What does this fold into?
Amino acid sequence: MKKICLVVVGLYLNLLNVFSQSVSKPDTAEYQTRKLKLEEVNLISSYYHQDGNNSSVTGGIGTEKLTDFANIIDVKFTKYDTKNRLHTFTGELGVDTYSSASSDKIDLKANSSASSSDIRIYPSVSWSMENKQRGTTIGLNASSSTEFDYQSFGLGASFSKKSKDNNREVGIKAQAYLDQVKLIYPIELRTTTSGGGRERDDNDYASTARNSFTGSLTYSQIVNQRLQLMFLLDLAYQQGFLALPFHRVILNDNTHKSELLPSSRFKIPVGIRANYFAGDKVIIRTFYRFYHDDWGLTANTADIETSIKVTPFFSVTPFYRYYNQSAIKYFAPYMEHTANDAFYTSNYDLSKFDSHFLGAGIRLAPPKGVFGIQHFSALEIRYGHYNRSNGLNSNIVSLNIKYK
It folds into this structure.
């Protein structure tokens, strides 16, 4: 069971480009139906390791060691229909294997427990239809994520519209996640109704709902041949059981509690993305986001990535991201909460901190294929180091192979 959100891993799993083929018109007035075509396959693997000393499982102190080995396969098919609309079908399957020293402390008396490691499986499918004559694209997606203490199902829909000159585009997206959280409490807080007994028996634990709903609005603009801008607005609402029951809170009188947070949360992130083409060999990508929610957390994110083409088939991409946030209203460190607090958490992911994430990637795309294999069109390797002001640090290495 994961104790933190591996947002660093997510930075490596970039959105894939949609590739389309040119359409040849027959002499007749009707278009011919295209057969389903395998467009590309992406194989992504990453290894992530972190360390720190503010574990939420033990009340804000103790080891945060965690390792995660993730593997994802992404398959994309395309097809033109009789109205010359491009249909894109994408299927993805991800499997994470991770171990966490902190989650092993759910039972403080155990030398080792099943919760010290787990597997997460997360398949997803999506479909989009692009009408180039109208400049519109519609899409649908569905996803699932399963691990021992958490089950998530996602559904989404999207629509975008381009201007006649293709210089502007407006997009809207709606997404819903309907989740179930198993109520696995620290060993000393368990009762016959709160979970306990044999740790790997699914019948031992009750579960409760956590639902998330997001609406997104984007506007992109090609300013000139070198500069492209995108503005982003998200409105997100969560409701249900938003705490994690195995996160301990130790009050100032040494009383043990399970983390308790409000049953709703409203989030407003806004951002701007700018891509600048500084000649044929250099692309500079920048991003800034401001975030605020009704738990009192305010955050700023700024990152820059520069892609430098050393040769026509080899490029280097250094990147850097700076992030800072305030603490939520309900956070306090180890043994600083009191019995009078209505809500309480010692999860340092919700504390005040700033962080730095920097690294670089290399990409090979030789015309005869990677290692001379024609259909392996690209190989990318990335490394990043993450450091947080409260002592958490991590490293990640990822590998992406594209078959086309």
